[in-house]
Amino acid sequence: MYVKKLAVNKKNFVHHITDLNISFNSNDGGIDREILLKNNHEGIIQTTKGEPLLFCDATFKDNIQAMRKGAAVIIPKDIGFIIAECGLTKDSIILESGSGGGGATAHLAALCKHVYSYDINKNHLKTVQENLERLELDNVTLEECNIIDATPKEQVDLALIDLPEPTIAIPKIKEVVKQGGFIVFYTPQISQAQEVIGQLDEDFRVMRTIELIQRDWVVEEKKLRPSHQMLGHTAFLTIARIFRKE
Ligand SMILES: C[S@@+](CC[C@H](N)C(=O)[O-])C[C@H]1O[C@@H](n2cnc3c(N)ncnc32)[C@H](O)[C@@H]1O
Which domain holds residue 45? Predict the structure, then answer.
């Protein structure tokens, strides 16, 4: 992984450590390389400013957070729902378009068997490739390709469509999604969801269109209230399945 260790301060600010062979420097103060190596980058270590930092291993989540983002990515509240709603497992095969910043790609590749990911933007694909390498994920076929022309090597359990014009993907989805498989259209506008649903023929069944609202709360001794800042809108998720009358 790219981020190897974390150093967490008293206020829960998390410093990412990517190189274990150098000294640590931050607003919380510094720590010599020799001290870090002697402590194996583990436990509580005092900085030159007397700040106690807690060192531990970085996780996949920390590495996802450290990813370079080239486009608007699908965030955990939505990708978590997609994974559960579509019953994805280690055996699932996924088609995804566009690859964008690789937010969805990374989460899906970490869980599923294989991800076929298509994007028309070279720069976005380069970013996704770098992110996947940092995350040590090698089960993704990344292709510079219009979704219209995509040719995954096998039928897929889920097609995740996050495109400015989602309807263009419908003929391809119809061809490559397994019988009973899922399609998720991730659309910032509800008018896009309406347009998609209007163009799905009798081989598709629309299960639901949903928006997930996330609100953090402040829970302290004298404060029990929603946070002043709230994550506003991300997108609508339209979930459909393929039930062909073969
Ligand atoms: C919002 S981003 C996708 C973000 C991605 N779901 C994530 O989580 O990082 C939309 C992407 O679709 C790509 N795109 C647009 N039209 C396309 C097409 N016809 N075929 C393939 N990709 C396309 C864009 O280049 C862009 O990278």
Answer: 5-60
Residues 125 and 233 occupy one common structural domain: yes
Q: Is 160 in the same domain as 185?
A: yes
Gap from CA of 205 to ligand 1 centroid (Å) = 24
Ligand 1 centroid distance, CA of 98 (Å)? 3
Q: Whose CA is nearest to atom 1 of ligand 1?
A: 72
Are 100 and 34 members of one domain? no
Which of 74, 77, 97, 167 is the best mutation target for the ligand 1 pocket, counting ligand atoms within 8 Å of the beta carbon and taking the most? 97
Same domain for 191 and 160 = yes
Query: What average pLDDT score do residues 92-118 get?
Result: 97
Q: Which is it for strands 156-161 and 140-144: parallel, antiparallel or unpaired?
A: unpaired
Confidence tier at 69 by pLDDT (50, 70, 90)? confident
179 and 224 together in one domain: yes
Average pLDDT, the chain: 96
pLDDT beyond 90 at 246: no
pTM for this model (two decimals) = 0.94
